[in-house]
Amino acid sequence: MGLVSAGLLVHRSGSLGLEVFLAHPGGPYFARKDESSWTIPKGAPLEGEELLAAALREFAEEIGFVPSGTTEELGSVRQRSGKHVHAWAMAATLPPNFVLQSNEFELEWPPGSGHLKRYPEIDRAQFFPLRVAEQKIIPAQKPFLERLALRLKAP
Among 26, 49, 62, 80, which is disulfide-ready with 123 (CB 3.0 to 4.6 Å)? Predict the structure, then answer.
């Protein structure tokens, strides 16, 4: 099946209409990138793990919060890397005292230096109005926003 990820697209109704929750990858590669670099919180399923269970687990690991609500499948997309990303939508809000708590990864930085550094997998995460999110999200995941808007009949 190749590389597979599962993610959760949390959404809510805000003052400007539909808002979606996106995450910004941590680490030096994305440090100065904003437009077309945000993503739905996602990750690889563990061996034998159902994709929806993986999406919920990954959201909790990357964001530090377990949302609750009914999920709706949004299908999958294929990213340039060849990875197939499966997504589910969930209407949810975050607690008022929410603080991002992401897991970390280790990376040799600068490359070839022999120095290993730890970085948060996600360094920022927030709700965006749909039209702003369309500019922020990586292009391959934009169909998830379109599918969600169609289902919710959002402009």
Answer: 26
